[in-house]
Amino acid sequence: MELLLEGKRVAENIKKNFEARIKTLKQQKNKTPYVAVLGITGDEASLTYVKRIEKNCEKYGIQCMIKIAQNQEEFIQNFKQIKQKKEITGIMFQQPLPKKIAELINQIPPEKDIEGVSDLSMGKLFMGQENSNIPCTSKAVIEILDFYKIDLRGKNIVVVGRSNVVGKPLIPQLLNRDATITICHSKTKNIKEILKQADIIIMAIGKAKFLKKEMIKQGAILIDVGINFEEGKMVGDIDFEDVKEKAFAVTPVPGGVGIVTNILLIDNIITSVEQL
Amino acid sequence: MELLLEGKRVAENIKKNFEARIKTLKQQKNKTPYVAVLGITGDEASLTYVKRIEKNCEKYGIQCMIKIAQNQEEFIQNFKQIKQKKEITGIMFQQPLPKKIAELINQIPPEKDIEGVSDLSMGKLFMGQENSNIPCTSKAVIEILDFYKIDLRGKNIVVVGRSNVVGKPLIPQLLNRDATITICHSKTKNIKEILKQADIIIMAIGKAKFLKKEMIKQGAILIDVGINFEEGKMVGDIDFEDVKEKAFAVTPVPGGVGIVTNILLIDNIITSVEQL
Predict the structure, then answer these.
(1) Which domains, from first to last, does chain A contain?
(2) Which residue does chain A place closest to B158, by CA atoms?
(3) pTM to 2 decimal places
(4) Second label for A131, Cα 20 to 30 Å away, from A37, A246, A273, B237?
């Protein structure tokens, strides 16, 4: 491996202006970023995630309101109240949510959809716009590639995974950068053959250490979006130890895409106030 | 070639219920499909297209209002008026349009966006919904493949062209059918190599007779979205005569995707009233 793609360095670069940007917002617009996170009790892992958001917000002087409902009805009530509060500049839902509740995402006012998960945000992105809110994980992949000056033009990029929050939103961003893209998933038949031809591979399937050295070509660039747990240890979709000699560059897990994703959520929160 | 993919047969199958569907709408909802087409004078080819829509609407008893403005201001005025008319169930813009005007597309009420070209329609499609209005040309490709019972699951499909009206909207529709997709375009470096591995190729780049037999594998299925003119004769992006022995199936031009596209516009016009 020639290059360890360190999420920390990318994140540092994004967050270095947070303080100044928030200060400017207060001075010029008399606005403070203020995010509301809505959830339902139950999922422990996702509660941990919410706590981390709260902590991150606190760090940068962003107001944060967490509303965890006991049931769906309470969630709906909370959402109604939050929508009416003008001082709240960003709204996000803790995932996963029951389907009925999840559909409320499209009722988040477009300018407050800081996760970029509504139909409208997704549509804007697919129409080629990158100034709207973009799902943070997909954007983190692009930020890492951009930071390390990896030219995507004409490159064969294989995205493994077709989720609405990673695989799909990556497509327009990669097309904007003139990459040739292949999207693989669980129904792909000849995935090893396809991976072998890729200049860049983006793994987002949630299968621990799936990608091995015999599946990649010499000098490939590998981005690992996966977060899996193996014997209590966090591992990605890439078998880092196995591929590290053959690949040109790899993102580690932890320390790769995840850190950048967290910082980009804060970035989206600030940006959406800047764009008001 | 084993199979000529005839657009006419697919179109016949779609339009056979038009009359009954329109009758039902009148009886059950007291609604008549009524489409408004807004344009600006200038582009002759696009005017011909508008005339064809008018004729098609007439054939099926769909009301159609054509408003061709002399300039941008008049267009904006026309659009304002049309938006206020409750009896109009579908609105479409004649393309191409100046950028300032083209952006008004997002002000078409979602349920009247019969071409599926707004950010919101595109977003819904990318989130996996196929019950909303879908850009007709992209849907025509799918209708042809469906009609001829071509299974897409796990197939390697190469889409050549990344436009907002064909290449991009094809992506979610093909993903919904479990295909593995590669999107190529003008910046793709090794297009011949990529095409050679495709089970199905969808050409949408507007280059007359670009695809030759040496670029495809034996038995490939070829869909031609291209409409080009060579010495006054309409030809596709595929060199039909050259590939016809080697391919398993091909859509002709004319007589392929185009006919189905025209019928799907009528289908979208009727469907959007059914969904009201």
Answers:
(1) 29-110 (3.40.50.10860), 135-258 (3.40.50.720)
(2) A182
(3) 0.95
(4) A37
